[in-house]
Amino acid sequence: MTNQDEFKRIAGQLIAAGRFIDSKGWVPATSGNFSVRLSDGRIAITVSGKHKGQLETEDIMLVDGDGQSLDGKKPSAETLLHTSLYQRFPDVQAVLHPHSLHATLAARLFKDEMVLEDYELLKALSDIDTHQSRIVIPIFANDQNIRRLAAVVKNYLDHHDAIHAYIIAGHGFYTWGRSLEEALRHLEALEFLFECEIRLHGVKK
Amino acid sequence: MTNQDEFKRIAGQLIAAGRFIDSKGWVPATSGNFSVRLSDGRIAITVSGKHKGQLETEDIMLVDGDGQSLDGKKPSAETLLHTSLYQRFPDVQAVLHPHSLHATLAARLFKDEMVLEDYELLKALSDIDTHQSRIVIPIFANDQNIRRLAAVVKNYLDHHDAIHAYIIAGHGFYTWGRSLEEALRHLEALEFLFECEIRLHGVKK
Amino acid sequence: MTNQDEFKRIAGQLIAAGRFIDSKGWVPATSGNFSVRLSDGRIAITVSGKHKGQLETEDIMLVDGDGQSLDGKKPSAETLLHTSLYQRFPDVQAVLHPHSLHATLAARLFKDEMVLEDYELLKALSDIDTHQSRIVIPIFANDQNIRRLAAVVKNYLDHHDAIHAYIIAGHGFYTWGRSLEEALRHLEALEFLFECEIRLHGVKK
Amino acid sequence: MTNQDEFKRIAGQLIAAGRFIDSKGWVPATSGNFSVRLSDGRIAITVSGKHKGQLETEDIMLVDGDGQSLDGKKPSAETLLHTSLYQRFPDVQAVLHPHSLHATLAARLFKDEMVLEDYELLKALSDIDTHQSRIVIPIFANDQNIRRLAAVVKNYLDHHDAIHAYIIAGHGFYTWGRSLEEALRHLEALEFLFECEIRLHGVKK
């Protein structure tokens, strides 16, 4: 398959992923962005400012591994958060940034992290094989300086065990996977678990 | 393009907007109304009493800049709230009045205004470029006398900085934009932010 | 139009109403029932035990004004609640009995009635033209003896002003209208208002 | 009808059931599994690891009455919970295991069981003919050792009256029926009732 064929195929998958994610209400207005790494290392990523439930092929652009535009289109300011993940994790092939209500509320209700324990659905996360796991989702302060925010994420990853996702306060979350399918499975499972934790927050058990 | 062509195109966009807004549950029963300003200054607006998820071309009418019917159809009682916005803001081309649950609850839980701060999604509002903004959404008392209600809105606008929307207590909200697309983006973002604030209301953080 | 043509048209409308009501989640499992009065006084009503989101023409039957089957099909046990309303209100042409979550919760949270005030959406109810109305929705205890339950409803109606709907505890609600369209508008508006009241119940304002 | 025809028909019904259940949000990520007993005693069941809203015929496999694969495909680890139910209840023809938010929350809010009383919708459960019934849904601790978990369920069933469903903590619930249609009716009714109980939990009545 030529590079161009691969790009078209991936763009179609990102468009379909956007429709699915929007149907759940997880990318309101023009929020969110999604990417997939191509076999030659370039990254297909959604452009800035489009509604993610109404993407067209021209709304998917190509950047290099450092986030520089390869086709003249304007990448989202947050492209650097995608490329940082690809640089750190060689087996990651897809990164999703939804902007869901529950991730937004999470950062208001929990301080520095959410802890997910004793949920069977944790097994939907890669390399987790029992509900008796303790999964930490760090919450980082929002920052319009994406380079500085990326450095905060990098510093966290340097000093902690592998994570499956992180939340940016008031700004949704990032998750990723070894395929777009796996990243979507992570997204759907985490959104469910975030909602569980938020519904249980403050409830007398 | 002739005026008639433009009207038909705009009517189609309003019908599609109505289906989208209704699919979210934001215009229950026959509530809500929507309008777009045509290039010659006339305003295409939904007629009174129709379900906004089931609009047909004949349910879109034309009024002049003062809200007088230009085609014999009966305008909604609230047409004056639309024309007031077009008169004040020359660059506004679309006004949307959804009647959502969260806007309705907002007026019961917050007194005179909602304050939205520290949300990335604020950047979906026009001319906002950081989550570190403080956005005020005023809440006005409901009034069946629309002329009096319009005067209250006018008085507020005369004495405050520009706003992106206002809530009428027990009666949904108004938002607008330099295009129908922008007004829809404002609607979707504000509804998300209203839900965040309502979910956080009274929660021990 | 022949009687048979009218029945087929009405059956089609009831099937479409069922799909709409089910799409909102207001008739879970095989709950709920709907009817329309034909021009000759017979009543088209959903049969017992079918899923209201998946109705077919054969799931709509005919009863006379007293609820006796006219076509050998088995009417729902609650048919008498429909025919009682048609007998009392000569201008009522449609009765809807959804079984929504909010109506079910309402009966647990409020004692004998719900009071709806200061909502613009009250104007979606027939003969209401201002939000400054006070609408009472009585809540009756559930009873498997439908004849006895119908007598309780009749007694209430004999001694109170006209109402737009009533709730049966743990059993959804009944609403009606001068057309199926009006009954659907009542249903959608009341469900919205019930949700408002339930969301506000116990919230510190 | 040949066995192969029956299998194809049943597989189609399981695929449709999966789409319906997923449309409600009750099988997030790749959670949940469903089965139907064929007329010759073999069991058609969803394979491990697929999204239940996107099932294809190849995702439905055949196991014998003890849960052993009959076609070389890998059965879900939880197959034993299905076959245990078929062994105990000769008239059960379908078993559904959704993984809904409300079932997941239920196990956190209620200790050993949920009690459902005074709901008309209890009549959607087989052999229940009045809302004045008291239905107990036991909650079992989650366990990655499915054989041990199946033994706990068996022990409970040996010492209690017949039940319509059971919850596994943090892991959704199991329900069943004399047909797939009945099992789906049970699922829809129970999910509604679980949501009622959870919404009422901790609310001052």
From TrEMBL, chains A, B, C, D:
A GO molecular-function annotation: zinc ion binding
Cofactor note: Binds 1 zinc ion per subunit.
The protein's required cofactors: Zn(2+)
Domain Class II aldolase/adducin N-terminal: 12-198
EC number(s) on file: 4.2.1.109
Family under the similarity heading: Belongs to the aldolase class II family. MtnB subfamily.
Protein name, per record: Methylthioribulose-1-phosphate dehydratase
Organism of this sequence: Methylomarinum roseum
Record lineage: Bacteria, Pseudomonadati, Pseudomonadota, Gammaproteobacteria, Methylococcales
